[in-house]
Amino acid sequence: MTKKRSYKHTNNALILTGGGARAAYQVGVLSAIAQFIPRNHGCPFPIISGTSAGAINTTALACYASCFQLGVKKLEWVWKNLNTSRIYHGDPYRVYSHIAKGIFGSFQADYASRPARSLLNNDPLRQLLNEVIDFKRIDNNILKGYLSAVSVTASSYNTGDSISFYQSEEHISPWFRANRRGEPTQINSEHLMASAAIPMVFPSINIKRQHFGDGSIHQLSPLSPAIHLGAERIFIVGVEQPTEPVYANENNPHPPTASSVAGHLLDSIFSDTLQSDIERAKRINETIALIPEDVRKEKSGLKKIDTLLLNPSHDFNAMAIEYFDELPLSIKILLRSIGITNDSESSIISYLLFEKNYCKQLIKLGFEDAMEKETSIRGFLSL
């Protein structure tokens, strides 16, 4: 029997960002990296950090840190067999009754228990998470040396802070910074539901009397959790993509619709802070390089952080409109009521299209993009 190998001796970290259905792209990238690693080897990322839908992928990987290829295959199988009904209710009765309950709930007295309001009800996602993720495996992988730490970031609506819930080895301490902190915990499906609760689209989640939403909100430093958990080299799968000429409409004389503006807001939430944080890390590296090595050794908090960012080569929005008709009829009617159609400029479709054919295309794109960068990825991760 081949002995499984752990990469825990390295300081490699993986960061998976948010983006709803767009997270299928991350699975394609991970599938390509699995090709670079011998069979039965452990995860090449002893530190894993995720936000929003990326938090779900990272936690699934953490559960199978002892065998990276197996974890990726299981993750890929789930995404390739996904449909909207496994993420949120799409039948007419439950779609519109959920909206009606939210409207009527706003008229309740302050002392009454009000449900969290949202456009869609993602209760099916909770059931799916509890079916496919065995959270008990995380502790086992940490104890056996296949994993150092995993973190899931969510945003507190009560305080406005970015909270990174993490599960790790004992020597890693909580951190407290301006508007962000790390909180040790036993990660479960509620943390994932909170991190993936896209604002206004999915309901907030109550954890320890605080209401949490998507981790990309208020996340001013996406690299921070991985760095605090001990990372020195961070591989990041982003969601910032080029705009396809067929999708861009620079000469549109009409003002943007509300749905288009909402799409732009979501895009900025999920991508803008990442690029600025990477630039900040590079400037800090340049500053550290100017400090004498003996001084750096005295200051244990000073260390160089290398990053490698992989962004998609094609526009998710342009890909999503090709599969718009695969959404349930009630969801299409709901989206049309707020100005979103298969030829609209809103990127919201690409976040909500949890249909297997669309997800398969994103996985394929992620695989191809990563294979094209094989040499740089191998070199960066010392594979």
Main features:
single chain, alpha/beta, globular, 383 residues, 42% helix
How far from one another are the termini? 22 Å
| Shape label | globular
Report helical residue fraction.
Answer: 40-55%
Rounded to an integer in angstroms, the radius of gyration calculated over CA atoms is 21 Å
**Count of DSSP helices?**
15
The sequence of SSEs as H and E is EHEHHHHHEEEEHEEHEHHEHHHHH
Mean pLDDT across the residues is 88
Strand content: 5-15%
Question: What structural class results from the helix and strand content?
Answer: alpha/beta
Low-pLDDT sequence parts: none
Give the beta-strand count. Answer: 10
Q: Report the sheet with the most strands, covering strand number, pairing sense and barrel closure.
A: 10 strands, mixed
How would you explain this protein's 3D organization?
With 383 residues, the protein is an alpha/beta fold. 42% of the residues lie in helices and 13% in strands. It is built from 15 helices and 10 strands. It has helices at 24-35, 53-63, 68-80, 92-105, 123-132, 136-143, 189-195, 224-228, 258-289, 293-298, 316-320, 329-337, 348-352, 356-372, 374-381; strands at 12-16, 47-51, 149-156, 162-168, 176-177, 180-184, 205-207, 210-213, 233-237, 306-310. Strands 1, 2, 3, 4, 5, 6, 7, 8, 9 and 10 form a 10-stranded mixed beta sheet that branches. α1 links the parallel β1 (12-16) and β2 (47-51). α1 packs across α14, α2 packs across α3 (68-80) and α5 packs across α7. The longest helix has 32 residues, at 258-289. The two termini are 22 Å apart.
